[in-house]
Amino acid sequence: MNNKGQKILAKPSGISLEEHTSNVMSEAHAILKTKPFVVQKYLDFAGASLEKRLEIAVRFHDEGKKHPKWQDACQKDYFDFKQWQKYNDGTFQDYEKAVNKNAGANIRKAGVRHEWNSVKRLEDQFKIKKEQEEVLSIIEAAIVSHHSKLSHQFQERWQREGMDVFWKKFDRLSNNVSEKEDFVYLLKKYYNYSALRVLLQVADRRASAIEGSNIPCPFSEFSYEFPWEEKRGVQSLVEKHWQDDFLLVRAPTGAGKTDASLLWASLQIKNNRADRLVIAMPTRFTSNALAINVTETLSETGLYHSSAWFNRYDKKVRENSIEKLEAIKQHQFARHLNTSTTVCTIDHLLTALTFSREDHHHIAFNLANSCLVIDEADFYDDFTQANILVLLEVLKEWKVPVLLMSASLPESVLYDYKKNGLNVTDIKEDTSDSSRVRFAIESIEDYETPDDIGYLLDKCIEKGTAIIYANTVDKAMEFYNYFEKRNVIPIVYHSRFTEPDKQKKEELLIECLGKEAWQNGRAKGIAIMTQIGEMSINISAGLMISDLCPIDRLAQRAGRLCRFDKNKIGSLHVIVPQKNGFLYPAPYGEFDRREKRWIPFDALSATLKMIELKDYSPDELVELLNEVYKNEQAFSSKAIANAKLLKEHIFANWLINPMQKIEEDDNTTNFWKSRNITSQSSICVCKPENSYFKSYSDFQSWKLINAIEVPMYLIEKYRKAKILDLKPIQIYDEKSSIWVIREGFYDFEKGVFFPDDDHFL
Prior knowledge:
This protein has 30 helices and 24 strands. By secondary structure, it is α/β, with parallel strands linked by helices. Strands 8, 9, 10, 11, 12, 13, 14 and 17 form an 8-stranded mixed sheet that branches. Strands 3-4-2-5-6-1-7 form a 7-stranded parallel sheet, sandwiched between helices. The longest helix is centred in the N-terminal third of the chain and has 29 residues, at 183-211. It is globular.
């Protein structure tokens, strides 16, 4: 009770501080009970009991609410709530919705951050010896960050409220490790701090949710049973080598890599080397496909990337089959890697290492307790590859088992991994079916326009089933127009479709050229795809035409030839794009502004030089792969500098969040980016029915369904073509604008397309 005889409150809802602290303590114990692996790992890293430290953090996390100014303000807010309740008979959550910004108004005006006063009370109570100062700092860091206020954004407020001595303490602590010191030391230090920081926040938020009759997502154990009677080559391989901390595996497409990765993960978790699985894919399209594939054999699968909300929840929310609040909980649960298996993009993990947001600590800490599968590891540009080396260096020190898989890993990658201190001697290879001929390259031909290879395209029409790979969206649309003029409508699949249309395209492709269609003898159709169809779509055809690309990409594409029939050999025709008499290598090259022409990457030139008109087996592809990539990867100076920035972010932000605030799915900071792509912006395929959005979340939900991400240069190109208009919108009280495609220049068949030349102004 306070000096007025009132109970000491924790919240304006009227719950007492004693009751709330008890609830948080109960949740903390319940969480640790589900995570014995984390408890043991913390003991190994910190040499101390996680439970005891967390109990102290919970006990003191809200002690600052006893401050007279804070209590007085909370009592006034509680009084306002009770007055409203007399006439409305609702809960505090109803009250918050009804009065909006007025809920808790007195607390916001009180000028007292309770968590800062909590650490003051903690220090006043404990007489800490010098050798125990680090322990106190770990507990205090958890307390002051449990409402995301351990950030440079709030430095001025710390100082204004008389807490400068504590700010300086954390600032010194943050900066007492420099890049010149041991990176290993910092990473272990981070794990010790982040465990309490994350678990206190989780316990507090779950307790608060339950107090508001909002049941949080349950923690589930990883559970997987191998579904087949016998293990195939790659599956036997991972079972034999599962104890390797860093396992490199090369296996051809269709070898059963997905079940191999799940089998490997089950062995890691069973043997107390991890407590959950994270699978990192190159793109959100591959993430979607894998998440669908593994759901049937796993106890729980979370999916997270920039459009995962649409793929998993949007339709269910609109059809009222799931409450929006429940969908948001599940979405965030997967974002933080709390699901027993989470499929995400590699960008999600890399960005978390920048610690640019408070929830990056959740993602990083949960990753530190996972085993990680990096699938199709050869897909990335050198920016991302260099970033991945930093990620692997971090995971090595956090003792995270890593399985890195691909159908096309060259031997030369070993140089990079060994140089970074990873314990790996060779690439484990599935050779059980590697000598069987999969396809034949039947022609290699230059072309500038589709008419130059008309006889090949006509062969697709005659055959009735074919797959065409174009290196750019513009090339894909040139092929589409060729067929359209001949009254044949192919299925074109590229990045410039909305999320709903991408999903429909994938379903249509599988319906026409998927396994079931071939088994039932009703396969039909011509698919035209760009890079997004190299891995994510499980389709097949006997005939393929592909733009020239580096051998690792070409092997991936060719993996869709006769995919469902081992008794047949596919036919591959490699076409070499030309422009003004030179090889046009985009996107596998750079434009030289001085020479005013494209310069192909070495891997593309070497591939063109080495491929032959002959049959190819996986063994021969690997030989070719190793020859094309025979030298250690030469990272560009930009990629090296960018990866160095990622390390600098770790050093700078491991404890105090930076001033810069990035959005939830941003994969760049002011200086660093996860991959080397041009700046992107959104264009919408239609105007919103109402230009007013109640919140940023509502706008994002609408945009996910109706917008396309395109490079910035296309905005200007579309604007000049007069197919794009800037339309005003308002998000709550903020005015904004969106680019909207004019009616008639987007459809399901083509995506965004240009007007005829006669109308191009």
